[in-house]
Amino acid sequence: AFVLTPEKRRNLVDEVGLSPQRVSVRTMGVDNDQFTPRDVTPADLGYDAEELLLYVGSYSPYKGLDRVLDAFESLRETRDVALALLGGGAEDELFDRAARTEGVDPVTEFLPTETMIDYYGAADAYVSYPVKKSLRSGDCGIISPAEALSCGTPVVSPVLRFIPAEQRDAVGAF
Predict the structure, then answer these.
(1) Cβ atoms within 10 A of the Cβ of 109, count?
(2) What pLDDT was estimated at residue 135?
(3) What is the per-residue pLDDT for 63?
(4) Residue range 79-93: average pLDDT?
(5) Which residues are CB-neighbours of 56 under 8 A, at least 6 positions away?
(6) b/e string for 65-99 if b means 16 or more Cβ within 10 A?
């Protein structure tokens, strides 16, 4: 079996009873030569707020976008901040809410990798609040936070259990 973290390996060995020789850790890959810090500001991407938060992912309930929007609305009461939502999906209700929320910019078109890296570079923090792993895709929300970390962008999220151990020192708590 292949797992993403040493913790998942321990779980399969200790709790499920698999042989340690049958479980290998294979971390999710981010090209650290491509995803590097950039000197980009929110203004470079068309934002006039002092601070920019970034969310990358689908507008699905399991991604916790509703919680991110709740926290953002609260933050907007005291700070000049914008929220870039890169992604989309079939959740029309969440998209409609995001589109109606002042300071939120839902970007639903496909963005080239270089543009994504610019967003990571301009963001003051990457934010997410995944509620659970997606049973349909196996996605647990670790690629985008890992890309953000590779770009030097702080990550504010409870996805700690999914982030590879070697990157955890750069992760905050939402």
Answers:
(1) 6
(2) 38
(3) 79
(4) 84
(5) 86, 87, 116, 119, 126, 128, 144, 147, 148
(6) bbbbbebbeeebeeeebbbbbbbbeebeebbebbe
| pLDDT tens profile 89-137 | 756 788 888 889 999 998 888 899 999 999 999 999 999 887 765 434 4
Using CA atoms, how far residue 174 sits from 14, 44, 125, 128, in Å, is 29, 27, 11, 8
Alpha helices in the chain (DSSP H): 6-11, 65-76, 92-100, 113-122, 143-150
Residue holding tokens 């504010």?
156
3-state DSSP of 60-84? CHHHCHHHHHHHHHHHHCCCCEEEE
Distance CA 89, CA 59 (A): 5
How far apart (Å, rounded) are the C-alpha atoms in residues 85 and 2? 31
Query: Across residues 144-154, what is the average pLDDT?
Result: 89
Q: Report yes or no: 84 and 107 within 8 Å, Cβ to Cβ.
A: yes
The residue type of 160 is L
